[in-house]
Design a protein that fits this description.
single chain, alpha/beta, 8-stranded parallel barrel, 12 helices, 44% helix, 15% strand, globular
Length: 250
């Protein structure tokens, strides 16, 4: 059985004091939740403060990005050892906004995945198609390209330290959500792809999250799909009450 993973990606939101307030409220709201891995991904500036708040709780810490090198003359970047040092267990890699606005490629994503794994950080590898690609019938082609590019060179053991997050770009922040059937179709395709590359046993163990306008109203229906193992939540993770409702999808 795959343990559901619900992660909140705060993106470019929340000061340190706001992050502490949100996490403090969330910690109280999810104290009675079992059998769900709960993750928050604040901005870099708030990681240390949030880590103090969640100490001893069920909530895990994630960063929103990582650089592929451990150190060096890379102004403005943050490395995997730095994220480990501040308490991170996870890191989001290859989010569509990173691809869209900051020039991320399959190659740079793959380098970051390997850098994270080298320091015992669990990558949340994001994949997903844009609206015009879906309308052109290219969804599976794009997903295969993102998945195979992102995991290139990983052993099965390394893969099982990863999470894959399917995020249809057309559903991020738009209020549109892939229907549960659409989400299941792509998640099933990803699991089939991993079966071909690795094995059915490996593929059956990997957690595949859905991301794209996940809200309390649609979380339970999405999570009821056989290959949807969690959610990567954007806007709804910025309020403790709505995120806690998603965490308690059952």
């Amino acid at each position: 059985m795959r343990t559901p993973i619900i992660a909140g990606n705060w993106k470019l939101n929340k000061t340190i004091s706001e992050s502490v307030a949100l996490t403090t409220s969330l910690k109280a709201s999810v104290a009675d939740v079992n059998n769900v891995e709960i993750i928050v991904a604040p901005p870099f500036t708030a990681l240390a403060a949030v880590n103090e708040v969640i100490a001893g709780s069920k909530i895990r810490l994630s960063a929103q990005d990582v650089y592929s090198e451990d150190s060096g003359a890379f102004t403005g970047e943050v490395s995997a050892p730095m994220l480990k040092d501040v308490g991170c267990e996870y890191v989001i890699i290859g989010h569509s906004e990173r691809r869209q606005y900051f020039g991320e490629t399959n190659e740079s994503v793959n380098q970051k995945v390997k850098a994270a794994l080298a320091h015992d950080l669990k990558p949340i590898l994001c994949v997903g198609e844009q609206l015009q690609e879906r309308e052109a019938g290219q969804t599976e082609t794009i997903i295969e390209d993102h998945v195979t590019g992102g995991i290139a060179g990983l052993s099965s053991t390394e893969l099982l330290s990863c999470v894959i997050a399917y995020e249809p770009v057309w559903a991020i922040g738009t209020g549109k959500t892939a229907t549960p059937a659409q989400a299941q179709e792509v998640h099933s395709f990803i699991r089939g792809l991993l079966t071909k590359i690795y094995s059915a046993d490996v593929a059956s163990q990997l957690c595949i999250q859905y991301g794209g306008s996940v809200k309390p109203e649609n979380a339970s229906e999405l999570m009821a799909q056989p290959d949807v193992d969690g959610a990567l939540v954007g806007g709804a993770s910025l309020e403790a009450e709505s995120f806690a409702q998603i965490v308690k999808f059952g």
